[in-house]
Amino acid sequence: TGMRSLGDEGKKTTSTFNGLSKTTIFLTGAIGGLAVVVSQKLIAAFSRLVSLPIDFAKSLISAGSAAENQIVRIQTIMRTTQQGATELFDALLQVAEPLPVTTNEIVDSFIRLESVNLAGTEENLRTVASAALATGENMENVSAILQSLETEPLRRLGISLDRTGKQAVISFKDIRIETAKTDKAIREGLLDL
User: Fold this and answer.
1) Taking a C-beta distance cutoff of 8 angstroms, is the pair 88, 77 a contact?
2) C-alpha count within 13 angstroms, C-beta hemisphere, residue 133
3) Which has more pLDDT, 1 or 181?
4) Spatial CB neighbours of 101, under 8 Å, sequence gap ≥ 6
5) Is pLDDT of 21 > 50?
6) Mean pLDDT of 95-120
7) What is the Cα 102 distance to its own chain's centre?
8) Phi, psi of 97 (to 5 degrees)
9) Could you report how far apart the first and last alpha carbons of the chain are, in Å?
10) What strands lie across the sheet with 159-162, from one edge to the other?
11) DSSP state of 149
């Protein structure tokens, strides 16, 4: 019986050992599962941290590419050198900086003004930007209307253009300007509004 009781104790010990090992395995599994969850969260957070600089770098490359396209556009249309176009682009960025306009709008407006023999000066560009802001249009649309001088788009801006008399009459609210009937004089009158 002494052996038997020793055998029973051995079985209990084995059973207790098996229970402990099962508990240990369960705890190890739980800790491992927690470690997996924590590591997945860390990986996700790390990938977001890694993707931020990558997204930022992509944005920089995209912005640089857009700027280069605008410089090439200025160089081609203005028939200037790469350096001249770059300097002009930098000057346009300075004009655009305090205004609620995009780089595309300022460059497009500059080119449109120059294409109809109006100086793309800072003053003229600010005037177009102000007109765009006042009318709810973008600069590109206002400069396109200034370029075309079509009466219907001008009316949408609240501007009336009458070329029937000896002189052209431009009216906006209570402002009335009489000018020569030439397109250049009318455009200059519109900028004076």
Assistant:
1) no
2) 10
3) 181
4) 129, 132, 138, 139
5) no
6) 90
7) 8
8) -50, -50
9) 118
10) 159-162, 168-172, 175-179
11) -
Q: What is the pLDDT of residues 55-107, one digit of tens each?
A: 666 676 777 788 888 999 999 988 999 999 999 999 999 999 888 888 899 99
Q: Residue type for 74, please?
A: I
Smallest Cα–Cα separation from 108: which of 137, 134, 83?
137
Residue 190's Cα: distance from chain center in Å? 30
Global pTM value: 0.65
**Tokens at residue 62, please?**
């995209």
Which residue stretches of the chain are H helix? 2-78, 82-96, 103-115, 122-135, 139-148, 151-156, 183-192
Structure tokens at 87: 């300097």
Q: Which residue has the tokens 């200025």?
A: 74
Pair of tokens at residue 190? 């519109």
Cβ(144)–Cβ(110) below 8 Å: no
